[in-house]
Design a protein that fits this description.
The protein is an alpha+beta fold. Helix content is 28%, strand content 25%. The protein folds into 2 domains: 5-25 and 84-169, Ku70, Chain: A, Domain 2; 187-285, no CATH class. The strands form 2 sheets. The chain has a 7-stranded mixed β-barrel with strand order 1-2-6-9-8-7-5. The chain has a two-stranded antiparallel sheet with strand order 3-4.
Length: 286
Amino acid sequence: MRSIWKGHIRFLLVAIPVRVYNAIETSEQIHLNQLHKDDYGPIGYDKRCKKCNKVVSKDDIIKGYQYSKDQYAILEPDDLAKVKLKTTKVIDIVGFVDKSEIPPMLYDSPYFVGPDGEVGAKTYSLLREVLKDTGKVGLGKVVLRDREDFVAIAPQEQGLVIYKLRYPKEVRKISEVPDLETHEIDKNELKLAHTLVDQMVTSIDQIEMRDRYSEALKEIIEAKIEGKEVAGFVEEEQPTVDIMTALKESIKQAQRKPMVKATGKTKKQEEAEEAKPKRARKSKAS
């Protein structure tokens, strides 16, 4: 795994040399290209002025803030340079808080953090263990790309994870969502809902989490490459029923249907493994 950032985690006089790694596997994502319908040529990105419809060069572009209709405050490069922050390659921990104090909505991108060499390994392990023992999360700030970002540093298994945090002002309030007024709940419906939840209690490692869309899209792409006919499926629309009937039927289904443990394998891999014993039996019989 290749690191994407190298620096220090620092709190007061303690400095830990670390390397930061991407925690998200982007190679699994499928990227589709935009093509010209007539000749399959890739579609480029033109910087076009919406007012005069001309394609402009980089030198013709300036930056401005729109403060009213058709009115902009123009910001020159010298203006922007005044607010640029110097990159220090240091994640400064400003304090430690309980994990429960950070609203889930503030969490953004996760990154793995590892020690940079044997020199910092002991102090790295010390920070990891103290965070585990106290249940605390380190809140820090780091300057990346001329702006300051806040991060949360948390232990995970034998390592540390850094989560980039959104600023509280960037997150909308749930109270702004319409139609959230409290409705009177029927006690019998609530009791059945509790029963249904109890029937479905499990752990996350027992739930099969697969990106079915990407798997299906890969199968379509493979079929296209091989010149095969593409078969699709449409899920049947479920009839609308009243809440009591829906709860009772759901409880029956939950009692009958065991949870499937995630294998981490695609449908094709599972089918291939299931077919192996059958082939072995045939070869022995022959």
